[in-house]
Amino acid sequence: MNCPTCGKEMSSGWLHGGGRMLWSPREDKPLPVKGREDVLLFRDRPQRAFLCRDCHQVVLTYLGAPAHDVFYQ
Q1: pTM
Q2: In whole angstroms, what is the distance from residue 33 CA to residue 30 CA?
Q3: Measuring CA to CA, which residue among 8, 30, 16, 24 is closest to residue 66?
Q4: Per-residue DSSP letters for 4-73?
Q5: What is the pLDDT of residue 73?
Q6: Which residues contact 69 (CB under 8 A, 6 or more apart)?
């Protein structure tokens, strides 16, 4: 995969984390998640990701589940 920022080849690998990772439009979002705008990126297992060592970008395909629905089911 080529980097969407600089166009150079990205390294394929895995993103690891200690549990869940989410995206939020707010920087100061406290956990647990309560906003419906939050999106769960991954949880409990490694997620395929691509890393650009030149411009420090990471690209991944996320789960797509609304974080609110996952955390409060």
Answers
A1: 0.71
A2: 7
A3: 24
A4: TTT-PBPEEEEE--SSEEEE-S-TTPPSSP--TT-EEEEESS-EEEEEETTTTEEEE-----BHHHHHT-
A5: 46
A6: none
